[in-house]
Structure formats: structure tokens, C-alpha cells
Amino acid sequence: MSRPPLRDFVKAYDVRGLVPEQLDAEVAWALGAAFAQVVAVPDGAGEVVIGHDMRASSPELSRAFAQGVNSRGVDVVHIGLASTDGLYYASGALDRPGAMFTASHNPAAYNGIKLCRAGARPVGQDSGLAEIRDLAQELLDGSAELRAVATDGTARVQDVLGDYGAFLRSLVDLSAIRPLRVVVDAGNGMGGHTVPAVLGEAAGLPSLPLTIIPLYFELDGTFPNHEANPLEPANLVDLQEAVVAHGADLGLAFDGDADRCFVVDERGGAVSPSAITAMIARREVAKERAAGRDEVAIVHNVISSVQVPEVITEAGARPVRTRVGHSFIKAEMAGHDAVFGGEHSAHYYFRDFWFADTGMLAAMHVLAALGEQPEPLSALMAEYSRYAASGEINSTVADAAAATEAVRAWAADRGVVEDRLDGLTLTHAGGPEDPMWWLNLRASNTEPLLRLNVEAADAETMARVRDDVLAIVRGECR
Fold it and tell me: Where in the chain is the domain with CATH 3.30.310.50?
């Protein structure tokens, strides 16, 4: 049976494929050897740190990858079960390149690898992943042979879970907040491993004034209760119901590898990730100001609510707008020495966490903000809900460019400002009888989809613009 080419599942930012049809131990070995050859050896790294999630295939794949790394004379430190941000912590704290075996929120049939250089610096298509893919493909095809090394690398095991939890607690102090009841839906993913360690006492840390009510903390890569993708509203229903039933102060939902966190208020209402971005931005700006730093930058992507740059500016900081995607966010953060970055997909990035994303640290900021004052979360977040948003709406199209041009033409006489930073963004400043609205249309890199986001000053205007644009986009498909 012929093997599918690596190009089919080594994507722009990571590896994500079916097991074992695409990703098996042999492929993992080749990718490990290539990672060592392309990243670790040229960077002068004598050791690579490797973690894995709870999927049944993850231990075998991570071991095979480690053997590939060892074959190039590079040592390995296994941290075992970890969230993706736990792997980033290890990469940063140990100053080692890293590999995390996870398919994040993908269904059970998948697995994958997220790669980084020392200090949790990303490895993507333009920063080494293409070279890793091509060398691994040549190794699998037998068209390349690596020179022998004097001695194979070694492997050791190191538990970093407690250190990870202690480090996060040093960034956000929850010890003095008012007592909170928190429902946490781990979706049978890695949140079930990290939440008890960071917010509880499982890793030997002192207790916090939190009562954690767990949902689906059992690690199970078959996801028996619901998909570990809180971006889909159906996967938040259990959490929303549990928050109300338990009279909890809030709910937190993590995706499969626990690098994203979604928030539900005490009434069971989902809190927009853009609102969370704005709230954390204000907290981080205040912390920088208190430390005597006047020049503060915050990064946000093009589909974040317009309230995000408004709040950043009001707080006396400088908003930096960038394309969707972690490689763009991280690059802009590093270039501007930004203290924080947020995406509307609920990825949150912190300078103090090596510019990497961590859902757990974002959750701790929400807990701190709520616990430092007496109001319920719905009241606290009301000031960060200034506009009506559609959320991201996907449409299958045969010709994304033609559909985008049709929308641009529709808007041409509507007094809009156009930019092409990431797809097409049209902004209508609005007036007394014609409220503000903006939209973004972006083509998927991997599927025949156009992604639409609309936001407006009121729900009626948002619905009108949304429906007009969808009629155009979907009319192009017929």
C-alpha cells in the first residue's frame, strides 16, 4: 500500500493527520530525525523536550519521534502527559526545542505534532516546517540517507507539571480573591490533567479559594461526551447547564490540548473571546504601567471586535493589528515587544510566557478579575460587549476570489474603507441614520470555504449586512 505524501497532512503550522493511514510510528521517526537535523542541530540544542496528550496513539508516536531525534545524536527529555502550553512552558523554562503530540480539537481518528524551537518559538511552514517535511519525505522514500553520528542520543524523564503550575501562579496571584465556584469542562482532554494541578492541589501547590466542579475530567481520546472543541456552541451546552444548576460563578471550557479556554458567565451565557481579549489587555496594560513602563503594545487579529483596539487605546496602550494565525501573532508580539495578544478563536498569548499561547493563564486572569471585585461575571463583562457580532460563518464556494470581488463591488458605493491585510476587510464608519459596521471575508487555506465575520453598532444592522453578504457569497456558488 502506498503511503500518502507528507504534504497532505503537514500543514502551515503543524502536523495533523489520520492514524495510522497518514501518521504512524515510521512517519513519526522520520519527522523526529528531520526535526533534529533541521532545527536542533543547527540551533546548537543538545536536547529536545517532548510531551503528548491523552490520545491512545500519542505515547507510541512520541516514542518513535524521540528515537528519530536520538538517531541524530540529540538527547530527549520526556515530560509525558501535558497540555500544549505545558510543553511550551518546558521549552521556555528548559530552553529546549520541543514537540507536542496532539491533534488538539480534532476527532479521535487524528493525531498530530506541534513543533517549536527553544524558548517556545514557533516552527511553521516558513520557519523550518517545510524543510522538516521534505527531509522526512526523502527519508521515508529512501532517497536521502543521513550521515552516521558517533553516538545516539539518550532519553530521560522529567516531571514539569508542578513547576508549570507554580510559574503560572507567579504571573497571576489568585490566593487573595474572594471564594469562587467554578465549573470546568475539560472535554475528556488535557484540561482534566492540568486544572487539578494548577487550580487545585494535585501537584502539591497550596489550595486556592476555588471550588472546582469538574465535567469530563477523565482523559479519553475517544471523546465520549462531546468533541473537545468549545468553539462549536453545541459543545458548550453541558457546561452552560451545569453552571446554572450548581449556582456557579462561572464556567471554563478547554479544548483537547487545553491551549484554548472559553468562558461562560453565571447565567450560562457564552462570553465572547474578543471580550476576554479586551479585559485581559486592560489588566496587562495596568500591570505594565504599575511597573513604570509607558510604551505598551497589545496585538489583536483582524477579526477581533473593534472594541478590542478601543479598550487598548483607552487604557493608554498601542493596538497592533495582524493576520489570523499564531505565527503572525507571535511574530508581531516579538517585533513590538507586546505584553499580550489575543485572537477571536480564544488563543491568548503572553510575553511573560515566551510569547506563546496558554488557555490556563487566560483562565486565571478571568478568575482574578472576577474575584478581585464583588460583581457577577455578566456585570463585569458588560463593558466589553459594546457591539453586535455574527461570529464566524463558513460558506462553501467554488471561486473564493470571485465571491470576494462581488462583495467588494456591493460595498463600493456604501462609503467603506477597504484593506487587504488578511482577506477583505470593509469598514463603514457609520452615522446617525446609518450605524457603524465592518466585515471580514477570508478564504480558508485548506478548504473551499469563505469565512465571514460581521460586527455592527446594533443587532439589526449586523443582521442586515450579514444576510446581504451571505446572499452574495452563496449566490456565487450556484
Answer: 388-475
Residues 6+ apart with CB under 8 A from 176: none
Report the C-alpha gap between 53 and 257 in whole angstroms: 7
Q: What is the topology classification, in CATH, of domain 273-384? A: Alpha-D-Glucose-1,6-Bisphosphate; Chain A, domain 3 (3.40.120)
C-alpha torsion sign, points 197, 203, 207, 208: negative
Instruction: Look at the pTM and tell me if it is higher than 0.90.
Output: yes
- pLDDT (tens, 9 = 90+) of the chain, 478 residues, equals 578 999 999 988 899 999 999 999 999 999 999 999 999 999 999 999 999 999 999 999 999 999 999 999 999 999 999 999 999 999 999 999 999 999 998 999 999 999 999 999 999 888 999 999 999 999 999 998 899 999 999 999 999 999 999 999 999 999 999 999 999 999 999 999 999 999 999 999 999 999 999 999 999 999 999 999 998 999 999 999 999 999 999 999 999 999 999 999 999 999 999 999 999 999 999 999 999 999 999 999 999 999 999 999 999 999 999 998 887 898 899 999 999 999 988 999 999 999 999 999 999 999 999 999 999 999 999 999 999 999 999 999 989 999 999 999 999 989 999 999 999 999 999 887 889 999 999 998 767 889 999 999 999 999 999 999 999 999 854 4
What residues pair up with 114 in beta bridges, in sequence order? Answer: 100
* CATH code of the domain made up of 162-271: 3.40.120.10
CATH number, domain 388-475: 3.30.310.50
Instruction: Output the nine-digit C-alpha cell for 289.
Output: 504601567
Q: Are 100 and 178 in contact (CB under 8 A)?
A: no
Nearest-CA neighbor of 31 among 103, 139, 109, 120? 139
> Dihedral angle at the C-alpha atoms of 240, 241, 242, 244, nearest 10 degrees?
90
Start and end residues for every CATH 3.40.120.10 domain found in the chain: 6-159, 162-271, 273-384
Q: What's the CATH code, domain 6-159?
A: 3.40.120.10
- Please provide the size of the chain in residues: 478
DSSP letter for each residue of 330-391: HHHHHHHT-SEEE-TTS-EEEGGGTTEE-HHHHHHHHHHHHHTSSS-HHHHHGGG--SEE--
Report the C-alpha gap between 437 and 417 in whole angstroms: 11
**Which residues are tagged catalytic?**
104
Q: What is the DSSP letter of 431?
A: B
> Which residues fall within 8 angstroms of residue 343, CB to CB, at 6 or more apart?
273, 277, 300, 301, 304, 324, 326, 329
- What's the CA gap between 378 and 394, in Å, rounded? 29
